[in-house]
Amino acid sequence: MRLSLLAIASTAMLALGMIVLSANAGSIDDTDSDLIPDVFDNCSAVANGPGTAGQCNQVDADGDGFGNTCDGDFNNDNVVTGADFSILLAVFGTTDPVSDLNCDGVVTGGDFSAFLSLFGGAPGPGATAI
Ligand SMILES: [Ca+2]
Ligand SMILES: [Ca+2]
Ligand SMILES: [Ca+2]
Ligand SMILES: [Ca+2]
Question: Helices 82-91 and 109-118: crossing angle, nearest 10°?
Answer without folding.
Answer: 170
